[in-house]
UniProtKB/TrEMBL annotation:
This is G-protein coupled receptors family 1 profile domain-containing protein. GO terms for cellular component: plasma membrane. It is a multi-pass membrane protein. PROSITE patterns: G_PROTEIN_RECEP_F1_1, G_PROTEIN_RECEP_F1_2. Keywords: G-protein coupled receptor, Membrane, Receptor, Transducer, Transmembrane, Transmembrane helix. The lineage of its organism: Eukaryota, Metazoa, Spiralia, Lophotrochozoa, Mollusca. Residues 57-364 form the G-protein coupled receptors family 1 profile domain. The chain crosses the membrane at residues 45-65, 77-97, 117-141, 161-184, 204-229, 294-314, 334-349. Pfam families: 7tm_1 (PF00001). Residues 261-282 are annotated as: Disordered. GO terms for molecular function: G protein-coupled receptor activity.
Length: 410
């Protein structure tokens, strides 16, 4: 083994300064810069791109979903507004983290701030997954159990979101204990938790919570989405003969309860649409747009979070070489070389995983006509000069006029 240089080991063991150097971020970062330069370049320079795109995209998303026109039409606007704000906060926090590691600017090396940051950084990630799960459950109920879905009113949704926020904060509280300013003045894992990592409270708690939140919950979201897709496909095969009775039912006068009821929709939330949805087993053509939007957001989260979580779960079982060992010797050591290959792959996957905090705005624009229309109206002051403006057709004008005559905002 290359790292079994007894002379070098003896020199390091006899020097407290050299021993402390092995526990610094600088040694870790310089080691990866030397042994995995391409992965470290991606780690350093892709995140600022994500932050730049994500700040703009999440601000647009939050403004549009929080607009009165969106909030009064559906409950999903509350979830997607909260998700955009949570993603925006996470991007700022993650930028601060990357200024600490790998940029070595010491942005976390302050007692108190180190602990607070560790809690909030993971709590926001938990909260994002909880929100996706929440609106996935509502969409599942809306499509598969439409009568039960009516209990999720616009007054109840904010309470659900607040409860999920409290749960995320509660799960993150132990992180404030795990992280301290260590002897070298850096925000790192508490020594008592770092020793014997596999059996420490830190490893058990973090491993269980992160696998539950970032693996079990996304898998649950996947299962619910598969059921929803199956329901949509099955409803799509209904006999054409039923369409006449549905149209007749849609023309019948609306009751007060139906006007006040809420449904999880984005583009069309009229009472007639909800009645048609209930008659047709919870799904109809008018619900296709919102269902597609929410399915894409859910699948995007699953596709980006699960691979990163799997690599996180595998890392404790990846062996690394003997220590102490110089950086140059590590590159020639087969055990360390295999470890660096795994870490390089994990860094690349982590950067890809970050994109789910960035790309939702593109999903909204591609799948929701209302979101795209309001984005153009709000962020292009001279809309008639904006490329891609959505012009009203006579059919659309008739639909808006008819809906407003029924007291429905479109």
């Amino acid at each position: 083994m290359v790292c079994n240089n007894t002379t070098y080991v003896q020199i390091v063991l006899n020097s407290t300064e050299l021993m402390l150097e092995f526990s610094t971020y600088a040694f870790f970062v310089n080691n990866l810069n030397h042994n995995s330069p391409m992965a470290m370049a991606i780690n350093k320079y892709v995140t600022p791109v994500w932050v730049f795109i994500g700040v703009f995209g999440n601000i647009v998303s939050a403004v549009i979903w929080a607009s009165p026109r969106m909030r009064t039409c559906n409950t999903v606007a509350y979830y997607l507004t909260s998700l955009a704000i949570a993603d925006l906060i996470f991007l700022f926090l993650h930028l601060i983290y990357e200024l600490q590691n790998p940029w070595l600017l010491g942005t976390l090396d302050i007692q108190g701030w180190c602990q607070l940051f560790s809690m909030v950084h993971i709590a926001v990630q938990y909260f994002c997954v909880f929100l996706v799960l929440a609106f996935t459950v509502e969409r599942f109920l809306s499509v598969c159990h439409p009568f039960k879905s009516e209990k999720f009113s616009k007054t109840r949704t904010p309470r659900v979101i607040f409860a999920l926020f409290v749960l995320a904060i509660t799960l993150s509280i132990p992180q404030g204990y795990f992280w301290i300013i260590n002897i070298v003045g850096e925000c790192q894992l508490r020594p008592s938790e770092a020793q014997g990592v596999s059996g420490s409270f830190f490893s058990i708690y973090t491993w269980c919570t992160e696998l539950a939140v970032f693996m079990a919950l996304p898998l649950l979201v996947l299962i619910l989405n598969v059921v929803v897709c199956h329901k949509i496909r099955r409803v799509g095969t209904l006999k054409i003969g039923k369409s006449s009775s549905l149209r007749k039912d849609a023309r019948t006068p609306l009751t007060a309860n139906e006007v006040k009821s809420s449904a999880l929709t984005v583009d069309d939330d009229s009472p007639s649409s909800k009645r048609l949805s209930r008659t047709n087993g919870g799904y109809n053509a008018n619900n296709k747009g919102p269902t597609v939007t929410l399915l894409w957001v859910s699948f995007y989260l699953i596709a980006t979070v699960l691979p990163n979580t799997l690599l996180y779960a595998m890392q404790p079982f990846v062996s690394y070489g003997t220590m102490p060992c110089s950086i140059d010797d590590m590159s020639d050591d087969p055990t360390w070389s295999a470890y660096f290959v795994f870490i390089a792959f994990k860094l690349v996957v982590k950067e890809i995983s970050l994109s789910h905090h960035v790309g939702n705005v593109f999903i909204y624009m591609a799948t929701s006509r209302r979101f795209l229309r309001l984005s153009v109206q709000n962020f292009c002051p001279r809309t008639h000069h904006c490329r891609g403006e959505l012009r009203d057709t006579s059919l659309q004008t008739m639909r808006i006029t008819h809906s407003r005559s029924m007291g429905v905002d479109v």
